[in-house]
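Subgroup meeting minutes
Present: P.N., E.W., G.H.
Scribe: E.W.

1. P.N. recapped why we're keeping a running log of single-chain structure predictions: easier to compare across weeks, and new members can see raw inputs and outputs side by side.
2. G.H. added today's entry (380 aa).
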Amino acid sequence: MSTDYMNSISVVFYDGVVSKPHQAQLSAVDMNSILISYREQNDLRKKTFKLQQMNFIGALGKKCPVIELNNDARIEFQTIDIPEWVPIPQKEFQQKIWKLERTPALILFSVVFVVALGFSTLKWGIPFASKVVAFQLPANTLQNIGQKAEDYIVNDWTGPSKLVQGQQAQIKQEYLSKIAEGRPAKIIFRDGGRIGANALALPNNTIIVTDQLVEMAHSDQEILGVLAHEQGHLVERHSLQQALSSLGFSILLVAVTGDSGDLMTSLPVAILGAKYSRQFEQQADLYALKLMDKKHIEVSHFANFLQRMEDEELAAEQKSDQKAGKTANKDQQAASTAQATSQDHSNIVTVLEALSSHPATAERVQMVRDFEKQQKLEKP
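Output recorded in log:
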């Protein structure tokens, strides 16, 4: 193949010695080598390179092709298209890829693929990884994480229980005999104060029950229904799974590498900020219903409690709204105080929603009623 000027193209050449670019001419010596001609301090220099020395990098977007050479030398083309006579292996293949990546159909497909991949990762990938990690964490890690969350709730959000010891002991005994199923949790009674009637399931195999919840219940069976629901959260490690999911894509790295060192600092806070998903609530409800049916406890008790809890919360919200309306015209200082109180209430609700079951809904109550009806039909 001729090496005259007619069969040469302009390129930028780096000799690997200095970082200064040289305007050069590239020509083909034969099918296995190229010649680079350039001037340095008015001296014409020529260098020949064999194909074995070349690493061809095709065009990417608006970036032109490059040939990397030995000793950090480099050839940069100034156009996307490279003449056919330039003896570079896989040149045509690389150029086809470049043209393909710029086609509208492929660009659209790539966008759709990335969006679909991101959606799939968020909807299925992260929850799956969270479940894997949740059930792989050792017992001492669960204990430490749960204990930190427990300390926060006990010290900052609740007060000492006012229930008599005999009543506490009776509830615990009922729980151990009918709900624990060989996996007894630590039951702690606390005065719920501003967070009211709630039962909270923590990763260190602890259930916190507030005095207000016990007082709201009309029977021990209703309390057992709530404890069975929280037991379901503990068995499935829902609070841990939800907290792990809230960490986002970083949980995927933990699932792959197994390195959970940073979880000890981030998970207790994530547990307090996470909120049970609808799926987790349904799973815990179903666990409670099956367990109550197995222990011959009428599931209607659970439905009655859920309905009563929802009714009282709705009544409390209406009362709060009415009170807010009456104080709307007070002076600026009173308004500032109300705003601070509202923010404090908002923080309480956040923790409440994070650790307790969601407020009872008509859908959950209906689920219990349907389960009860189905069980009656199946029994002789």
